[in-house]
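Morning. Coffee machine broken again, so started the prediction first thing and wrote up yesterday's gels while waiting. Chain of 167 residues, entered below exactly as on the submission form.
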Amino acid sequence: KPIPYGDRRRRQMAAYSRRHYGTWRWKLDAPVAIVEHYTTGTTWQGAWNTFAANSRHLGESPGTCTHFIVHTDGTIYQLASLGIRCRHTIGMNNLSIGIEHVGRSDAEVLRNGPQMRSSLRLTLWLVARFGIEIRNVIGHGESLQSPLRYERYASWKCMTHSDMSRA
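Came back before lunch.
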């Protein structure tokens, strides 16, 4: 279920990357991390609509995006090519794959057997495909502690969300 990611959004992502990482790029070359999230919603379609809308976030374009959504029944939807940068984690969009889980809390997602089985299979497949180290499979709430994180905007250096924290 790909979201629209045409030339305009690619230019927006390249400009975002230049501002935040110092390079004009929209391509995701050789990802080295996976960031796990939850949607705070109850349907994959609602999450898909949010990502497809490409609405400004924190005053900037492109809008938020993710590579995959894992629905509560375990269905995996791929929204963007693995060769495209998605804006899902401040300081890590240039080197990571994003996986969203339909749910309103960490606990809700972690207790869902079909969803977790699918998520683990997807994550392990991505780890194997790209040679990603297990220590670089993190929850969104762990991004501030990642040695891979890099953000040029001083006011954004400590920004993150609390979803999928280590605790």
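DSSP finds four helices and five strands in the chain. Going to sketch it on the whiteboard this afternoon.
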